[in-house]
Design brief:
The chain is mostly helical and 129 residues long. It is 60% helix and 9% strand. The chain contains seven helices and two strands. It has a two-stranded antiparallel ribbon. The N and C termini lie far apart (68 Å). This is BlaI/MecI/CopY family transcriptional regulator. InterPro entries: BlaI_family, WH-like_DNA-bd_sf, WH_DNA-bd_sf.
């Protein structure tokens, strides 16, 4: 391992880097270019690595991008609750028996969360009516 690798610290998994960059983009006032992301990370990650990660995240539909000069500027497609909801939908869509998955999910909810879900689904779903 060379001195440069030691100065940068331990290598992180791609998922950790994506989460770090996603958090940075969510906190930003607007879309950021790869150069701006690299600068704000400030941990020795190369510009080309940032471009690669941003491109992968765009391909996964986590980020939108718009041309800015000779580069693209990237922004999250949704906020943190939106990403959590997407993950939940993905899990549900991967299972063959949606009804069973939803039933198990609903059975595991606390009374407070079950009441909140009823409210979100609308007044017609309230069993007390």
């Amino acid at each position: 391992m060379g001195a440069n690798a030691q100065e940068r610290g331990p290598k992180r998994a791609n998922g950790e880097r994506e989460a770090e960059i996603l958090g940075l983009l969510q906190r930003a006032e607007g879309a950021l270019t790869p150069g701006e992301v690299t600068e704000r990370l400030g941990d020795g990650l190369s510009y080309s690595s940032v471009v690669t990660i941003l491109s992968r995240m765009h391909a996964k539909e986590l980020l939108s991008r718009t041309p800015r000069g000779r580069a693209y500027a990237y922004a999250p497609v949704t906020d943190d609750p939106g990403f959590a909801a997407r993950r939940m939908r993905t899990v549900l869509e991967e299972r063959p028996d949606r009804e069973a998955v939803l039933a198990r999910f609903a059975d595991g909810l606390s009374a407070t969360d079950a009441d909140l879900l009823r409210q979100l689904l609308g007044p017609d779903q309230d069993p007390g009516r």
